[in-house]
Design goal:
alpha+beta, disordered C terminus, Beta-Lactamase, 4 domains, 12 strands, 16 helices, five-stranded antiparallel sheet
Amino acid sequence: MVRKFAITNLKLSHKGLILVCVPLLFELLFVFTLATLLQKAELEAVRAKHSKDIVSLANSLMQDVYQSNVALAGYAMTGKGPAFARRYRALSSAIPGELASLERLLSSEQDLQNQLNRAMVLGRQNLALLDEIKSTIDETGQSEIGFLGSQDGLTAAHLARLRRRFEPMISQLVVELSKAISKHKEVEARSEVAEAHSRALIKACLTAGILFNIAIALGLAVFFNRGTTRRLAVLTDNSVRLSKRQSLNVPLSGNDEIALVDRTFHEMAGALAEAARRERAVVDYAIDVICSLDVSGRFTAVSPAALKLWGYSPAELIGTRLPDLLEPDAKRHTEGAISEIKAGPASGSFENRICRKDGTLIDMLWSVYWSDKEQSMFCVAHDDTERKELESRKQDFFRMISHDLRSPLCSLQVLLESVAEGHYDGRPEKIKEKAKLAESSTTRMLDLVNAIMDIAKMESGALQLELESVPLESIITRSQEAVKDLADKQGVTLEAAGTALEAYVDKDYLIQVLVNLISNAIKFSPPASTVTVSCEELGDLIQVNVIDRGRGIPAEFLKSVFEKFKQVAKTDGRQKRGTGLGLPICKAIVEAHGGNIGVTSDGASGSTFWFRIPRCPQQPEVDVS
């Protein structure tokens, strides 16, 4: 375990130094060893050659001394033959050089120095004696004499003495040189053995070096594979796993560059996974439908919002063509818009209506981007129904404003022009009738302007309440009196129940709320029906109910009736002469009192509008600690 830790902690630069330095050090050691063995072998070869040269030179010296003696004898026996004379001169002239060379070769041989000195002396004496013998022969003046057997007794005796001196001298020279030859033959033999041994060592060293070099190469390969190649393979595998969104390998241990890159890779993978989770969360929890379409317009991916907006789960939509979900009138327009985006700017938007799973239609605003590379269209589909309805309500409101303001003003203008032109001179009853109609129109205009002003003031937070404890009976009575004419006109009866309660409210604003709720109930109640106002206690709150027996409110409109300009039916604003602002004003007033407002209805047999307000003023908390 420690060894593995040490390897993985090495930097790549350190591993590179190991890969270079280990073979280099081995090669230097190997070269040094080979150089030492070669030097030793060369020394042995030089020593062997030196001994061989001494032996050869000693043998040559002995041969030359012997041959010069033979040549001198032939010279004497042939009566001073010129051939023997030339040979003797050649041999005798070579002997001094051989003696000098032998002396030079043996100068470092301390153990043979005495033998060398004796041999040198004997050699020179021998040479001098031979020269003396030749001179003696040359002095006889005879053409033929026998060696040491001349007719001249004095010469013969002299030559005999010279011969007796020569023979032991040459024998002693041979003995001394033989000793040197014998010793150096032994040295030569040992040197040859040593040289052969050195060569064998060199061969063994070469073999061992090659094998050890192979072992080092294999060891370094294993070391590099364990420390680098295998770890790089892990990085490569991690990159493949990341592209396939698979879990990564266990992080590499150690502190080398590969481990640092691997840790950075894991951190990057974690960051990408977190980004993917966030992106997935955005897609999963997005209100809009996020999807992609292939070339043929089939869904290849759909966000979960499709289930809420369209009623189809993502699994149901995969493989389905978008035109199959559209209403018939929107198919051609949508296909044309998609074709233009593919051929043109690659991004754009269009509108259409989707047929939901339950058969209802929903307006959608599409923002799309076409990718030629992936041959896919990436889309965000936004529910545009509310905006469409709001635009429709605004148009209805503007039409209503135009009708309810312009028509009365036009009537007033016509009346005033007629009066100014004298059309009603002497006809006071007609003027009175027209003035009454003008007053009614003016009242409606003022009501509309006041409603607009009230909603603007409430939205800006400028509503000021004058709160006091007020009996609800008086507020309900005044509210019913305010709408009695409308009730009589519609043939609706008004009644009240459980009104003996007090509430902490602004009575004028609360009367406005009740008048609005009761008048709406009257408008939507059939003739000969009853509109009831009742009160009940709910703890610290009082709930006031306005109950009618009209047509009721469909369930899908229960949450939106208190929105501005919202009408259950588009014709309600014109037929019931409503502005679409009454209920939002009621909601703002009740909430300013610290209460809340709502409606219940089964959609078929009437509705109950209710609101809850505080029963008494809020008492401040007293710290009794």
